[in-house]
Each structure stands twice: as C-alpha cells, then as structure tokens.
Amino acid sequence: MKKYLLVAAVLCCMISAMAQMPKEGFSKQMNAYTEKLDSIDAGRYKYHFVYDNQYNVEKMEIKEGGDLFYFEFTYDSLNRLSSAIQTDIDPDYSYRTEYVYDNLGRRSEALLCFLENGAVTDEAKTVYEYNEDNNVSIVTELFLNNGSWREESKKEFFYDDQLDIDEIVFWGTNSLGVWIPESKIVHTYDNHQNCIVSKQYYYDAEEWWLENEISYYYDTTVLSSNIAGLDFYFYNLYNINGINKFCRNKLLYSDDGWGKHDGQSERSQKIFYYSTITGIDEMPEILLNIWPNPVDEVLYLEAEELQQIEIFSLDGKCIMTIANSLESVNIRGLASGCYLLKATTKNGCVVTQKFMKQ
Description:
Layout: H1 2-14, E1 27-29, E2 35-42, E3 45-51, E4 57-64, E5 67-75, E6 81-87, E7 93-101, E8 107-116, E9 119-130, E10 136-145, E11 148-159, E12 165-173, E13 179-189, E14 195-204, E15 207-223, E16 227-228, H2 230-235, E17 249-256, E18 260-261, E19 264-265, E20 268-276, E21 288-291, E22 298-302, E23 306-313, E24 318-322, E25 328-330, E26 337-345, E27 350-357
Parallel strand pairs: 2-16
Antiparallel strand pairs: 1-21, 2-3, 2-20, 3-4, 4-5, 5-6, 6-7, 7-8, 8-9, 9-10, 10-11, 11-12, 12-13, 13-14, 14-15, 15-17, 17-20, 18-19, 21-22, 22-25, 23-24, 23-26, 26-27
C-alpha cells in the first residue's frame, strides 16, 4: 500500500492539472509533429522522454536527486496505451499496469500489479465512468482485499458549459466506509483554451481551504497537437479519455508559488524543454481537421490533396471507403460508437484520427 501511495504521489506531483476537450467541437489535430517534448525540469524532479519511431513515448525517466526510476510504455495496434511498467528506486520492486478499453474505445479499467522480485504481492485497479458527452465523470481506485475489491478513493470531474474540466474533487472513505471530500482542483482558462491557473484546495471543518496555486505560461503561436509527448504527458499519465484536456498551445513553464518541501514554503518552477523534429521522413506534411466530434450524421474534413478515406471499426474491419467527394462523409448509417478515420494523400502520406458516432 505504501508503495502504491508513493507512485500516486509522484504522479500527482507531475500532473497537478488535467487535460481538456476542444470547446467549439472543431477537432484540429495533427499527426505530423514539428517538435517533441524532451525533458521537464521541475526542481527536485527531472523528467526525460524517449520515443519510438511513431513518436509514442516509450520511456520516461524520473530523477530525484541521485535516485532514478522510470516508466516503460507499450501500445496496441491503434496506438492506445496498453501497458506501463514502473521500475522503483528499489530495484526489487516494480509495478505493472494493463489498460482495458470498452467497445466505444474509451479506457474502462487500469489493472495494477505490485511486484517484488517479479512476484505479484498486491493488486489494485482503476475504474472509469463517463457522462453523456463521453467525458470521464468518475474515476474510482480499488484495492484487492481478502479476495474482494474494496473502494479506496475516487475523483469526480465537473465540466463547464464548454466541456472544460472546471473542477476535480478527490474523495476518500472514513472508518464507516462513507465517502468524504478530501481535496479539489479548480481550473481557469484563457481564450485559447489553455489552463492558466490551477488552484488546489483541501477540505477541513466543512470548509475548503486554499493550499496551492499554480500558474501556466504558453507560446500561443504553436498548437500542442504539433508536439509529440505533450498530449501524452497530460492525458495518458492521468488516464483521461485519450484527449488533451489541459491546453491547446505549447506549454513553456509553470510557477508554483506556494510549493512546500520538508514543511518549508518554497517557490518552484517547472520548465518544459523541446527539440525540433527534422527530416521529411520523420515529419510528413499532412494536416487533417475533422468536425464535429462527436458527430451525428455528417463528418466534415479539411486536408490537402486527399486521395482516399477509409473508416474502420476498432476491431480493424474496414466499414467504408471513399475516393471522391472528400470534403464530407455521411455516417448516418453507422451504429453509435468509436471509429478510426484513415486518410491517404496523393503522395502516399497517411494520417488516422479517432471520432465518435453519436
């Protein structure tokens, strides 16, 4: 249990704010990256990212002083995170998480095993619930206790009228097994859909008390979807439903004005370092916009020199192929659920994007 709390504390330190769905329903994403997130300097913690040939993060190294531990990630055929293995500071201990998805392509469970010298010593799991907008609503943490799952904690997500994550409330259980609020995070966004302030509160004596306030700063000329690793940092590690729900632009740094270490207040800054991806083979020039997403009847596309569009179910079956009239696709006949759109340009470049049929 203590080991798990250490892991959770590290992840909480890394991801003090979560990600955000596009406000206007116009999904503008890019599979041709121009930059990649190389490292983050967070004072006591230093992060370094390693990528595979599809620019998925396959390893994240974390240094704390002289200590080093890391996460290794694998992906399924749809480039969804399928597993994560953490090697602890103590080499005898490690943690393995397997991710499960439902028939809409949403993450439904994360199964965690605690390993000591390769043997499973304890198990936990995370269960995800979604609202009618297909946004995550409740994330519950459970531990295996005497052969049955016991609810330990949960997070509840609240959204504003533009589907931004307005507030996240963290709950725990008391000695009677009753849920009680413990803390919450409240976000404020700018007009570019970037979180600029994240306020963290704790609950005591039936009141909310401000504990910490973090400010974020961006380069608003660069989209976050043009950067490999930035979206991963926000949604995969925090297990949101596959969409960056935190920022639409390039995050430069954050200021934590009320940070505390060893009981002492200290001002800390988290700096994000990037590098440019060069070479035509590494960066195909293809930009695909699709909207609305989720969609009811007609899906609109914007891309240059498209030759063919294919739509696949999540089990890999090709449902539709279109070689003309490539500005829109009538999907009225598709069943509700999650699909993959594969677009091929005249020069042979391929880009895929997931969409939801209502």
